[in-house]
Design brief:
This protein has 69 residues and is an all-alpha fold. The protein is built from two helices and no strands. The chain has helices at residues 8-23, 29-68. The longest helix is centred in the last third of the chain and has 40 residues, at 29-68. The termini are far apart.
Length: 69
């Protein structure tokens, strides 16, 4: 699934699965590192999406405040 088309909810679900896999005692160090790297990319993507939404909300709120005056 492409990063742009993945919803934040789906990313969080995938992060949860990664954490469960990393908690497994049967996982190798190399695999743990790969999962960690993948998880960090997902966290960055989520943060980027949240930042975009916050900026849009701030713009909308700014327009509404300007319309009241």
């Amino acid at each position: 699934m492409a990063a742009e088309s993945r919803s934040i909810e789906k990313s969080f679900e995938e992060l949860e699965k990664i954490m469960e896999m990393m908690d497994s005692q049967e996982i190798s160090l190399e695999e743990s590192f790969k999962l960690y790297e993948k998880g960090m990319k997902l966290v960055k993507q989520c943060n980027d999406k949240i930042d975009k939404v916050e900026k849009k909300v701030n713009i909308i709120e700014g327009k509404e405040e300007n319309e009241e005056f």
